[in-house]
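Ticket #454: bound-state structure for guanosine-5'-diphosphate.
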Amino acid sequence: MVPVIALVGRPNVGKSTLFNRLTKSRDAIVAEYAGLTRDRQYGEAKWQGQSYIVIDTGGLSGDEEGIDAKMAEQSLQAIEEADAVLFMVDARAGLTAADQMIAEHLRKRNKRSFLVANKVDTIDPDLARAEFSPLGLGDASPIAAAHGRGISQLLQDVLGVFKQPEPEPEPEEGAADETEEQALARIPGPSEKDGIKIAIIGRPNVGKSTLVNRMLGEERVIVYDQAGTTRDSIYIPFERDEEKYTLIDTAGVRRRGKIFEAVEKFSVVKTLQAIQDANVVIFVMDAREGVVEHDLNLLGFVLETGRSLVIALNKWDGMEPGERDYVKTELERRLFFVDYADIHFISAKHGTGVGHLYKSVQSAFRSAITRWPTSRLTQILEDAVREHQPPMVSGRRIKLRYAHLGGANPPLIVIHGNQVDAVPKSYSRYLENTYRRVLKLVGTPIRIEYKGGE
Ligand code: GDP
Ligand code: GDP
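RESOLUTION: The complex was predicted; output attached.
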């Protein structure tokens, strides 16, 4: 399981700055002043091949009302579900009463916590350590989030306590002396044991439990006894048309004989972990509510992780033709960033369209892990360039010479050429669309990476 790390601390200690550095995203707003309310931020991060989820919990003011009152429920829940908390304090500002209250809270919850003193670019790290020792959380790790100082050491300490997952294939270096055959052999297929792992994801009440029940209750499905549950999500192995699958059920439907029972509440962390652990995500939305902001956030996360995606518009039963047209237009307009995903209009309640999900799951999964030889990828590149040349940069034309596969799940296409730093985004999109069309890739994002030199 991917570890979850929550960033906790009062406003302005540098949580967003650290979050952005860890996730390399600019999504979280870095505020120049305290007290700016903002949503929790969830991000995917990777350090030395190990994936983890970071949550920026927003500021805990820890004032006289007590921090419990000040913490949004989602924030509290994030702390509860995190495997470790990075409790950040501001070395420049020194120890405050709010820090004391937060420390007290973490101690009470018995959370695995790491004390982190930020902004040590402004103060001697040894002084910072001494300053915060009264918190009783051990020596503070000195960092300067804004400058990247101390981060490696911190990650080593924090992530060191979690087991290393199976190594992912490193992108092949163009100059590496391994053969293409060897490089391609490192791309994973479906796991023997689990088959295709499908996570059923979506906001509360969109119909996830109903869909899980429907999928498992189908006549053609053989459900095996659960191999055990991990965390809050439930892993249910089954077989359908001689294909193995494992359903990752975030809604917490538990099998008891032939009866299914809903037991858990919605949790963002659980959802993110299930996405991370899946091969294919079935993203469920409620057709009657259309696309809401939270759907977009979750879909953004799915895109970020590169997982294959199938979208299910549920509760399609009993909708008026006018409503249906409206929903379809909305989808087209707002889900353009995941337009590679198949969309199914289903009724989990009545079973309509549910069987068709499998075909999309399969093609999405196969698309994500298929191995394409260098000759094929290069041929497509050459054809694409002939059709539509890359632009000139300071009088010289950008040259794209050859392409090879650098990884799978999602497919990574590495393109070698000259002046590749100057390739415009629109041209990358053109290449991506060309690859998608020619290779008939569905349900998976494609990543394109450029390498300069010869
Ligand atoms: P948050 O409210 O805890 O998320 O804090 P922010 O990340 O928004 O940072 C608050 C302020 O501290 C910003 O002005 C940052 O530029 C500044 N800051 C963050 N990290 C550092 C650091 O390592 N050194 C210094 N000097 N300033 C920092
Ligand atoms: P979850 O919270 O996402 O697991 O959602 P549930 O599966 O518990 O469903 C929430 C509500 O939506 C329940 O009342 C279901 O009966 C209802 N529901 C689920 N699927 C459908 C559907 O396809 N059509 C209709 N009309 N209602 C549905």
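RESOLUTION NOTES: The chain has a mean pLDDT of 82.
TICKET STATUS: resolved
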